[in-house]
Amino acid sequence: MKYNVNSNGFYGDFGGAYIPEMLFSNIDELRKNYLSIVEKDSFTREFNFYLKKYVGRPTPLYYAKRLSEKYGSKIYLKREDLCHTGAHKINNTIGQILLARELKKTKIIAETGAGQHGVATATVCALMGMECVIYMGEVDIERQRPNVERMRILGAEVRPATSGSRTLKDATNEAMRHWINNPDDTHYIIGSVVGPHPYPDMVARFQSVISEELLGQLKKVEGRDYPDFVIACVGGGSNAAGIFYHYLENPKVKLVGVEAAGLGVSTDKSAATTKLGKKGVLHGSKTLLMQDENGQVTEPYSISAGLDYPGIGPLHAHLFDSKRGVYVSVEDDEAMNAGIELSRLEGIIPAIETAHAFSIFDKIDMKRKVIVINLSGRGDKDLETYIKWGKY
Amino acid sequence: MNRINKLFKEKKDKILSIYFTAGYPNLNDTTEIIKILDECGVDLIEVGMPFSDPIADGPVIQHSSNVAIDNGMNLNLLFNQLDEIRKITDIPIVLMGYVNPVYQFGYEKFIKNILKCDLDGLILPDLPLDDYINEFKPIFDRENLSFIPLITPNTSEERIRQIDSNSNGFIYMVSSSSITGKKNSFDDKQIDYFQKISSLSLKNPTIIGFGISDKESFEQACKYSKGAIIGSKFIKEISNVNLNESIKNFILSVRS
Ligand SMILES: Cc1ncc(COP(=O)(O)O)c(C=O)c1O
C-alpha cells in the first residue's frame, strides 16, 4: 500500500511518534496492542453493534437533487450529520472507548475544538460509565456554548485551555499534559487523525466505516462502487480520512480535502495548512505545520472551531505531498455562503466545518461527474455563528 | 573527555544543575545568567530553547517560553549570544528544548553551532531514539558531545538499557510521572524507582529532575543519584530587576 501507514508508523516522510519519554509507555502500549484488539472478532462485533444500534449506522447516502441540478454534476451526500450526537466524531469515540476498556483504563480525557468530539467523548463515557475530562480552548468555549453545556449535561468536566490562541491546539497541549500527569489509569481519546503513531492509523480505521458503507451504497445506485470525486473538509482530517480510506489506492477516485482559509491565505488569519505550512513536528507527529521561520507554531484562525488547527494529520500531509490528494482552501465567507446554500437547496443546515466542503464547485471542474461529499456534521451547534454572520 | 564526563569523574555527589529559558526575563540575559550561576558554584547549566507548545512543561516554563519568544529569542540569536561563552566560563552547558525549532534550524547547522560555541550536549525529550541514532549519534560520538536522555518511573528496564547504551554523559531521571514544575516530596513508590535504577549499574550516572525546588528536595534527590536539576523554581525566583542578587540568594538557599 502506497498511501496508508507503514509498519514504522509513517506515511511517506510524515508521522512517527515524537513524544517525550513521559508518554512513551502509554503510546507503546497502544502501538503494541491496538491491532490485535481491533481485529478481534469480539471487538468488531461490539463496535458494529454500537455503531448500528446506538449511533444509527449505516448513515444514508443521499442524492442531492437540487444541488446537483445547480452545479451540473451528480452530487451525493454521505449523511454523517445523522449520526447520534450530530457528527462523524462518534465513530472514533465508540472505537476508542472499547479499546480503553480492553486496556483496563478507567478515566478518559479528550481535547475538542468545535465541541463535537468533546460531546462524542462525553457521550461514550456516559454510556460506559467512565470519568471524563474534556479540554477546550477558552475562545471555543465562547463560540460553541451549546456543546459545552451538552458535555456538562452528559457528566463530563470541561476544562478551559487558557494558553496561546486558546483554541484546539492549546486544548491538545493541555490534554497531553494531563496524560503525562496521569499515565496509568487514563486513556486519551484523540479526536482526529493527528498525534503520535498509532493514533492517526487507529482513528482512520475507526472512521473508515464511512467509506466501507459507501462502497456498497454507491454500487447500488451507480452500478460501480467508487465515485469520481470524494470531498471532505479537513481540520485534523478524520472525516476526510474516513471517507478516503477505501479509495486511497484507487487512482480513479480523486480525493479532495478542503481546508479553512479563514480571512484569506495572504492574511495572518488563516488555517490553510497545505498552503501555509512546512514540514514540522507538533503533538507527536511529523507533518505539515503552520509555523514561523524559527519553528514556533503559528496561531491559526478560522470561523469554524473544528478547522482552527495549525496542522493536518500525517496521512493528509503525505497525500498532499505525493499529489494523491488535492487540497483546496476556502475562506470564512465562502463557507458561510455554502452553508446557507445547502440549507436552502436541500433543507440541511451543515456544521460550519462541513460547509467548507460545499464551497468548491467553482474551484475544481467536476461537471457531469459523480461526486460524494462527506456531510460530516449538522449545524445546530453553530446557530450563534450563523446568526452573528447574519447574511441570510 | 568532555566537560560533562569530567564533572562526573571529579565530583561524586550533590551535583547541582540549573535549567533556565534563554531570552527570559530579558532577551540578552543569557550570558549574564550563566556567568552568575558559574560564580555561585553551580555544576551544570541547561539552557532552554523556548518553544511555543511545550507539552512536557507546566505553567512556569510555559510562561518563560512565551516571554522569551515575544522578546525575540531564536536559535540564531542564542548561538550568537553563546559564541564567546568559553571566554568567561568552563562550566558544562547543554541545550534543552523541543524538536521543532531545532528541525527548522536544520540538524546539521545546529550541531555545527553547538561545536562552534563549544557547548557540551543536548536534551531533546521529544526526539525519538531512532532519529537520534540516525541523525545525531555519529557526529555526537565523533565530537564527544553528550546526548542526555530522559527516563521515567514507567520506562521499562529493557528500554532503560537501550537508552543507556546509546547515550553518553548522564541520564535525566524524571522523578515522577508529571510535567515540570509540580512540587513533590518523594513517596515510597518513587524511592523504589530510584533504588531500582541504582541497582541496574548503568554506564551513565543519573541526575534527578522535575519537582526539585529547594534545599530539602535537592538533598533528598542527592541521596538517590549524583545530583538534581532545578528548573521551574529557579525561573520563578529570577528577578527582572536584580538578576545577580536573586540568583545568588536562591542558589545559596539550596546549597547552604
Ligand atoms: C462536523 C465536523 N466536521 C469536521 C470537523 C473537523 O475534524 P476532522 O478534520 O478531524 O474531520 C469537525 C471537528 O470538530 C466537526 O465537528
Account of the protein in words:
The complex is a heterodimer of chains A (392) and B (256). Chain A has 392 residues and is of the alpha/beta class. Chain A has two domains: 20-50 and 89-203, Rossmann fold, CATH 3.40.50; 56-86 and 208-389, Rossmann fold (3-Layer(aba) Sandwich). Chain A has helices spanning 21-38, 41-55, 65-71, 89-102, 116-128, 138-143, 145-153, 168-181, 199-207, 209-222, 238-244, 273-276, 314-321, 332-346, 352-355, 383-389; strands at residues 10-11, 14-15, 61-63, 74-78, 107-112, 131-137, 157-161, 186-188, 229-233, 254-262, 278-282, 285-289, 325-331, 370-374. In chain A, strands 3-4-14-9-10-13 form a six-stranded mixed β-sheet. In chain A, strands 7-6-5-8 form a four-stranded parallel β-sheet, sandwiched between helices. In chain A, strands 1-2 form a two-stranded antiparallel ribbon. In chain A, helix 2 runs antiparallel to helix 4 (89-102), helix 9 (199-207) packs across helix 11 and helix 10 (209-222) packs across helix 11 (238-244). The longest helix of chain A is centred in the N-terminal third of the chain and has 18 residues, at 21-38. Chain A is globular and about 55 Å long. The model of chain A has no long low-confidence stretch (mean pLDDT 97). In chain B, strand 1, helix 2 (30-39) and strand 2 form a beta-alpha-beta unit. Chain B is globular and about 45 Å long. Chain B has helices at residues 3-10, 30-39, 59-71, 75-82, 99-105, 107-116, 129-143, 157-166, 188-199, 215-224, 232-237, 243-255; strands at residues 15-21, 44-48, 93-96, 121-123, 146-147, 150-151, 171-174, 206-209, 227-230. The relative contact order of chain B is 0.17. The model of chain B has no long low-confidence stretch (mean pLDDT 96). Chains A and B meet through helix 1, helix 8 and strand 11 of A and helix 3, helix 5 and strand 6 of B. Bound molecules: pyridoxal-5'-phosphate (PLP). Pyridoxal-5'-phosphate is lined by residues 87, 113-114, 116-117, 192, 233-240, 306-307, 351, 353-354, 376-377 of chain A.
